[in-house]
Description:
The chain is elongated, with a radius of gyration of 19 Å. The chain is an alpha+beta fold and 169 residues long. Strand 5 and strand 6 (147-167) form a beta hairpin. 26% of the residues lie in helices and 47% in strands. The protein has helices at 19-22, 26-52, 55-59, 78-85; strands at 62-69, 74-76, 93-106, 109-123, 127-144, 147-167. The protein starts with 18 loop residues before the first helix and ends with a strand. The chain has a six-stranded mixed sheet. The relative contact order is 0.15.
Amino acid sequence: MEQGRPRSAWPRWLVLATPADIGDKADGGIQTLADKAAVQEVVWRYLVGADRRDFGLMASSYAADATVNFPSVTCEGLDAIIDHCRGVERLAGTWHLVGTQAIDIHEDSATVETYSTVWYRSVSTERTVDLIKGLRYLDTMVRKEGRWLIQHQVITEDWGRTDLVSTTG
Length: 169
């Protein structure tokens, strides 16, 4: 941010809570912090679930009627989303590193943009390949029965590379 730029001019997603929120209106500021932490946890459950092949953990991040626009296909409904995600089982390993995350809370909905560097290892009888990608997850979340869930997700690939690790034979 520019030096001297008033905090009130910063984007809403950048400010966790202002001193005024935590001061006289402690409930609002503390709730904002709690909501942002809960939203972060939703993203982490999804990504950790993918890396551990724990599809129940992944499913706990989505609303039953969620929609996900993957780079190659759109899936509607929780079962279709998880069925598509099971494709990671064909990989030898995956690893998601979460980077910058912008969270904007609007009462019972939130918009979230998460940057992630992703590593996939693909092993075949002929070769081993590492795929490394820069992804962004653009999520619309809703609070249902006190829980934050992904209602709509768009996954975009900003960049990618493929590295040959080894060949067999």
